[in-house]
Amino acid sequence: MIKKFTRVGLIMLVLLTMSTSLFGCGKNTQTSKVDTTVQNKQAEEQSTGSIKEELVIAVGDMTEGDYDACKGYTMYGTNIFYSTLLKFNKDLETEPDLASDYTVSDDGLYYTFTLRTDIKFSDGEQVTANDVVFTYRTAKETGASVDLTMVEEIEAVDDHTVQFKLNRPYSPFVRTVALQGIVAEHAYGEDYAENPIASGPFKVKQLDIGQQLIVEPNEYYYGEQGNFAQITFLNIDEETALTYAQSGMLDVVKINPEYAYEEVAGMHLETYATSDNRGFSLPCIPESTNASGVVVGNNATSDIAVRKALNIGISRQEIIDNALNGIGTPAWVRFENLPWANEEPGLEDGQVEEACKILADAGWIDTDGDGIREKDGVKCEFTITGRTDDLQRYNLAVALAQNAEQLGIHIIAEAKDWTTCKEEGRTNPTCIGTGDYNFIDVYNAFSSEYADPNLVSLSNPAMYTNETVDEYLQKALEAKTEEEAIQNLKLAQYDGKTGPNVDFPYIWIVNIDHTYLVRDGLDLGEQMIHPHGHGLPIIQNMNEWMITGDK
Question: How many CB atoms lie within 10 A of CB 81?
Fold first, then answer.
């Protein structure tokens, strides 16, 4: 993630001062490599008058040398080095990639993949079933970011056939294999994470840790070849990136909302739809002490009247305008823009009078005139948190607190480190970022399996329980097809009678639009719906980028 300075007032400056130690010491050490790169590019453009052979971009940190697919690199939708058994198309449906076909047994336990025979790694070696087996066994043993606990056995039936035996029916497995990149067994070693030998569209040309990554097209890639001889990723803070862009040194720059309306000669703003959702969990149980002596639950949000009033009473657009410079789309459910999102029964926010009536009917009355409702001696107030290293989340917390005042709900917004936010999340709602190409996210959000007050987890932090929802979720896991799974996932959200869409264990506020400054004449192609994480999702189709001459 790019470390950045922003201009949002004295409070934000203080918060950033707390975190400058994350990158301040290394800033001077990156200057020589980065400056040389951009100076060379500027000289080339002055001589040629156009972008032809090279792009230089600043869209997030790609310079840490952590590109090992067995350790989770490919699981977040920012993969440029690897192929996968299946892949996602523009509609986020799975389709063949390394595998030409696959079958699922009637009991849902055996997945058999037939591999294409024409695919090679970037060193020219053939991709075989043994590479797939090695990849999954290594990833399972590593246990880093990739959940393969459902895989019992992996077997190479022959050179081009792989069979997985699961220990339970698990329909999201097809999504897992569409994210898990395949490594080359013969090349896998200590330095593999810095220079992966793989079968995707790009390969590493040069890596200067913490400074820059230069990639070039993989000549053995079986898909569409990239149109540039090399693309350089710079690891620079956002203000520096903006300065470089204004000097004509960069071709694509990630722009956060506070900079979205900066004008840069020769560049234009591109805005992409996302499933990058932000919201807050609303604990559904009253305050108590768990087995570890930690306070969990919330005496205000445990009342469904408070949760519903918040959801319909606030103005999401006002919050987006105040916190995000208007960059974002109001969101009412967790999975906006994903195939398994259920928008029913639909919400209309800004209903202040109706929200106040719901609260009053439930017994929440401001009896002492301090502007805060109370019920049975309990104030309708609670603390929410945003991360000290993510100003957008803190800004959203502040804007939500301000917007809720008109309802007589007192929300105290605080900035805390991410570890503390998660530890306190089952009593003090924290700003959650979501957006995942794997529909297991629905299960993680609402399953009572994760409602245990003793957990420290972002899975179901609201401790929401609903037997009917659990039944739909289980049916989704056991489904034999993605279509059947998605149907049950939608019913889990709302089936016409019950579900989280009317129980309100969360308050979702915004899908953050992903914004970038792009060099005029550079076409970034058709983008998929971006997942969680502003910046790197733009590179998913980097092999399709081209110069068109059009703005």
Answer: 24
Q: How far is CA 369 from CA 94, 355, 440, 448, in A?
A: 57, 18, 46, 39
Preceding amide of 345 cis, omega within 30 = yes
How far apart, in whole angstroms, are the C-alpha atoms of residue 431 and residue 425?
Answer: 9
Read off the tokens for 71.
């350790």
Query: Structure tokens of 108?
Result: 């849902």
Side-chain-side CA neighbours of residue 368 (13 Å): 9
d(CA 146, CA 176): 8
Round to whole Å and give the CA distance between 508 and 330. 8
> Taking Cα atoms as reference points, which of 310, 347, 308, 344 lies closest to residue 330?
347
H-assigned helices in 187-342: 238-246, 304-313, 316-324
| Residue recorded with tokens 């080359």 | 184
**Do the beta carbons of residue 31 and residue 237 sit within 8 Å?**
no
How many other CB atoms are there within 10 angstroms of residue 431's CB atom? Answer: 24
- Tokens 């987006």 appear where? 320
d(CA 50, CA 71): 39
Q: Region 238-250: what's the mean pLDDT?
A: 93
What burial class does residue 475 get, using C-beta atoms within 10 Å of its C-beta: 0-12 exposed, 13-18 middle, 19+ buried?
A: middle
Query: 180 to each of 78, 140, 185, 311, how far by Cα in Å?
Result: 12, 11, 15, 37
pLDDT band at 3 (very low <50, low <70, confident <90, very high): very low
Continuous segment of H or E residues that includes residue 34: helix 27-48
Q: Per-residue pLDDT tens for 175-231?
A: 999 999 999 999 999 899 999 999 999 999 999 999 999 999 999 999 999 999 999
Give the closest residue to 80 by CA, choosing from 272, 216, 211: 216
537 secondary structure, DSSP code = G
Q: How far apart (Å, rounded) are the C-alpha atoms in residues 116 and 131?
A: 13
* Residue 39 confidence (pLDDT): 55
Q: Which of 475, 476, 528, 491 is nearest to 93 (CA)?
A: 528
Neighbours of 156 (CB within 10 A): 17
DSSP result, 278-317 = EEEE---S--EE-TTS-EE--TTTTSHHHHHHHHHHS-HH
Write the secondary structure of 35-68 as one string of H (helix), E (strand) and C (coil): HHHHHHHHHHHHHHCCCCCEEEEECCCCCCCCCC
216 and 45 Cβ atoms separated by less than 8 Å: no
DSSP SS3 for 496: coil
The angle, 0 to 180 degrees and rounded to 10, between the axes of the packed helices 391-404 and 10-19 is 140
The contacts of residue 20 (CB under 8 Å, 6+ apart) are: none
Give 348-381 as a DSSP string. ----HHHHHHHHHHTT-B--SSSS--EETTEESE
